[in-house]
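User: For my dataset I need records formatted as: sequence, then structure tokens, nothing else. Please produce one.
Assistant:
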Amino acid sequence: MKKIMYMLGVVLLLSISATKANDKVVSETLQTDTLKKDDSDPVCKMKVKAGNTRTAVYEKTIYGFCSESCRKKFAIEPKKYIKK
């Protein structure tokens, strides 16, 4: 009886951890977007090549960045860097 309870506990723990791992992969996939065409960094104006993964989405537009620091500056105050 103890062996059966132990096995059920192990199976339950494994299924919970597998579910959490799958959720993490899905959320990481949704957060990472790639730049579709060459563009310039809206913060420092450097050229950014297509396929770059340092991106942020603002008003349904994907913006690419040369560095993580530029991406963070943009995330704090995007309207400052967007030309209308």
